[in-house]
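Can anyone check this?
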Amino acid sequence: MNCFFHQNYEAALNCPKCSLPICRDCAKRYGVPIGEWADMPICFRCTKSVAETGLNDLDKSRKKAIAFLVLLSAVAIVSFVIGLADGDPPLSALMTAGIATAAAGAIWTSFKIFINICLAAAHMDFGGMVVHMFSFIVVPIKVLIKIGESIILLVQVGYTMQIYLDVLEKIYMEEDDEDE
């Protein structure tokens, strides 16, 4: 059996994702360094598909993290400006902005916890209800953790997106070389 992508080469194995026969050259050349298919000899099509899907998923995560941080930043700025407009000294207005930002994050987190409590109640999961109710006690800590996680996520997403972009760049350069 010959390689699906190189008819002149004998197939060495089948792509573990799509089962197409691929040669040793394809097995060495393609694949992604991260994720479910990391360091597996997947074919050209699957490498391209995995990298594009990974980029799209990461972009969604990045947008959610940015939206959360923008929301909290907007609350902080508006609260600070309102504090200054009311004649508060700048330090007092800054503290008010910090409290308002924490409150906005706490409200968002509390809303998500409330939804989980309702879902647990609907399924008669009383243990789950107790766990979620206890969560209200730790909401301020969860907000700070969520802000930190969002910032860390943005850094990780940027790094991971660059890895996928490098894989796609390599594939597109090879496509251009084959067209010529």
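Reply from J.R.: I decoded it. The mean pLDDT is 77.
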